[in-house]
Amino acid sequence: MSSHTESDRRTVAESTSKTGRRELLAALGMTLGSGCIEEARSLVSRDSPTQVSLSIKTLPADADPRPIRIAQFLAKQLRSVGIDVQVVPMGRVELWRDVLLNQSFDCYVGQHPGIDDPDELRTLLHSRFDAETGWQNPFGYANLSVDDLLTAQRKQSGNKREKTLRKLQQAIVRDQPFSVVAFPDEIRATRTDRFDGWEGYETIHSLFGYLSVRETGTRGGRGGVKPLRMTIQDSAPTVNLNPLAVEFRSDETILDLLYDSLGRRIDGRVRPWLARSWDWQTSTRAPTATVHLRDGLWWHDGAALTAEDVAFTYEFLGDTSLGSLESPVPAPRFRDAVSLVKSATALDDRTVRIRFENASRAVATKAFSTPVLPKHIWKSKHEQAEIAGFRADSTTTKALVWSNMEPVGSGPWQFSDAKMKKSLTLDRFDHHFLRRIETDTEMLDSNGDSTPAPDYIHRYAGGPAFESLRFRVVPSGAAATELVLNDEADGTATGVTAKEVRDIGRAENVQLHVDKSPSLYHVGFNARKAPFSNVRFRRAVAQLLDKKYLVDSVFNQYAEPATSPLAQHDSLAPKLRWDGTDPELPYPGKDGNLNVKNAKKAFKDAGYRYTNDGELLQR
Questions:
Q1: Is 0.90 topped by the overall pTM?
Q2: What region holds the Solute-binding protein family domain (predicted)?
Q3: pLDDT of the residue at 603
């Protein structure tokens, strides 16, 4: 049996004893005169407990039909156990602004982008990040034991770290700051008559997916002239291309195309990208890396990319005010990686020294995947900004609210054109370092000399194989599929739903792709306030999610139910492996049909009471 103890500063008062309304009135009747009884009764009535009421925020069906169906299922279960609940559909930007910036929610159903490295759980759940924005503990969760485990794993490696990660996962699923529902499959359609190479090293809608695509009948990366036409269902990239604006970044891929980083995660590990190499010095407990940049790196506006830009990026992301405000204003994105960096110093134009906090080398390497920003563009964005949509008590900078609709990056594609909520066009960047890589695995440096290119770089020799990449905004997966079937698009960037699988499979010159997604659908709880400040209440609610039924009915089996946020990772705790039912909180029922009596028992055990009419009362 799992322990329900939580070292949470917000739940200290949960064990406070309660005095019933009837008992209090009886006591008052013995001590007060009749003239005062009615006044006392009125006073007690105002303070008497009311029905537990909450809202579930989520996306509308036209943005993604799956979260709202999960929310509606959960709402039905909650009403069955006597809770007054309202499902609140919201636009994508508005939802993430409420959840990630303003922490204005009871609970929500949404999609987390996924966890590449378990250390990302540190910023997601450590109490140190409670007051920050973005995916920095939006739940307001605090548990000192979990904090210790999150800190310990950062410094460990090998079996010792795996053991810590197992304990960490068990503590997380015990406390339920959020409840994992499922990891979805990504279903996409592509045409095979204009482009091939769709079955590359990565999923289609990714940097390496687009770098793998080649015009049909061509070899290499230099001959393609046709535009690649893709559909997307998220219009945010047509109105905001700021890599730091967390509420607009549900789709990270487009920014990956525009902004390069020192390293890229390839074949399961971070490998040099803008960096030619990095060397480690481990004479102290905290590692230090000397990073050597490639020759001839350029920004899209023609300026040279230097080590000064790299050093600036880590300083700026750690405090976008650059010390000009009373307190630092860190960027809400890339916080997990940048929080590992103590300092970054340019030694010359192509060399930068990065000193890390106390962390293992494997964890520290993750910081190399942070996109590099041009200092000459972003330095002027350090001033304070005031804008509607942010908490009244928050301080933000221009860097975080700037739309950046003419972005200057160093990635393989550069911005060309955007039509608001309609389309986005990116052009091939012909001065990208990949364009200098020949297909014979030789790479020309700035002096015209050749050096062997690593195999993982050689895969993408010549860079993009087409002159432009056009994204067309569509309202739904069905609309996206229709465009592909009618040869008005070459592929679907945003995944479609299982309802489109049959049409895709029957079509001529169209291929169906089903890939595992790192993202996870989940229910997030606001542990800052009642009733979700009570860990036992969170557990009682989480058990109402019949994950197997939801995978069958909502995802049409194109998903994997899960308990742990690391269910897709090698570090998954064996005890939390899905085996037909949730190993921590089994659903009290079958096939979506709730055993109400058993479900109510969990709330009673948590100290809640019911009225004669079956309403659950606040504590």
A1: no
A2: 270-615
A3: 98
